[in-house]
Amino acid sequence: MNPFYHSTRSGENSVTSKQAILTGIAPDGGLFVSDALGEKKLPLEAVCGQGFHETARMVLGTLLPDYTPDELADCVAAAYGPQWDSEAVCPVTPLGTDWLLELYHGPTCAFKDVALQMLPQLMSVARAGDGRQIMIVTATSGDTGKAALDGFSEVEGCGVTVFYPAGKVSDVQRLQMVTQLGGNVAVCAVRGTFDDCQGEVKRIFADRALAERLEGRGVVLSSANSINVGRLAPQVTYYFDAYAQLVRRHAVRPGDEVTFCVPTGNFGDVLAGYFAKRMGLPVRRLVVASNANDVLTDFLTTGIYDRRRDFHKTISPSMDILVSSNLERLLYYASDGDCELVASLMADLAEKGVYTVPDAVMDEIRSTFACGRADDAATRAAIRSTWEELDVLIDPHTAVAKHVLDAIPADGTERVCLSTASPYKFSSDVLAALGTVTDGMNGFACMDALEHLTGTAAPRQLSELRAGTVLHDDECDRERMGAFVESACARVFL
Ligand SMILES: *Cc1c(COP(=O)(O)O)cnc(C)c1O
Q1: Catalytic residue, candidates 40, 41, 112, 146
Q2: How are beta strands 258-263 and 283-290 bridged, if at all?
Q3: Count of domains in the chain?
Q4: What is the CATH number of the domain that holds 184?
């Protein structure tokens, strides 16, 4: 027993990292944090001389101390194996005078793979202690569903059920999900919107009668939400590893500070950069890049977080978020562990939709974090100029970060732009940004045209989808989602 994590809203009732990963969210609604963060620094010299796997083991060993080195070695080998189409896992490549950290070489071509290839491994080890079987239930607007399916497919003791809104995901996204192999996966289209799916999943988690029936079969429901420490911890690895790559390229000397610019939605990715800084990585700045849903830009500028605003549907949909859940962890650390403050801010958010952070805490946050925004027009312009001037093809999420990075005055540090999805995952918007009229073209026609126009190749994981067999054709009304989960549990856990 190593009680390492407690809630952002209370210092009591600590749990081990395995328990934190199995539970996901703390019982009082807070997020799990550790006061030991930063007590143990990673040895930078060693990090610079080793590969992604070794660094992943070091990072996870520090953040999840009740896993044994052998357990973590197995998890790392399984999560970052041949399913990645780059030997480096997350390679750093030149982006003009800056650098691009490519996080999209995993099985689903989006950065969620870094965490969602690892989380199922961590869960599988953690649940081995108590023997229960876990059914992951997720609602998706497109990207997370496939990453969860791929990560949990064939993982011992786990199943995964994904709901997506019928007719409201792209051709490629739908095919990615409905062609998923694995005896423990279930996929269902829902007649409704993403919010309908999400709302019903929340109700399913709160359904006591359902929970009791499942418990009778030894099954518990869980989520693969991005607030789980098992998703956050793996993301710290690529900040250290990117730094090591820059050292090996002689772009920086060990100890030099580096700036990272991060396209941000739920604040998980950029928070992992903050963890890396606390764990000893020389980080000058973390730049929070937002799309038209710029609640974080306003927050970092004014100290007021106000979600009472219009929601914008943009061409960088994975960042279309008004409540960035993981920000709660930053508030905890920046206030020096003031649970009472965090709890009262979160109560304000729930009751009034707005909270104001004390100046001292904002000063601490601003000493590391900078920010900027890009609307869709700026995003398209960044895709086009990056291709025409630098010969680098980027997706709309990455383009938001590129635009924001370009607007920030250079400060002499090397700068890394995080690239969170393959441009081919968003072929139609990328093609349109490059000036092609895409009216009437489906996802694969856009993919072909983008290859032709740029002379680059679509990742095999995406181009092969057109030949894939549809294995999941269930469709239901919102009211039937609970029954679908129950029958999936019966099928997966015989
Ligand atoms: C999820 C996602 C993001 C945002 O990451 P957060 O951790 O939610 O801030 C950015 N880009 C892509 C492609 C994503 O899928």
Answers
A1: 112
A2: parallel
A3: 1
A4: 3.40.50.1100
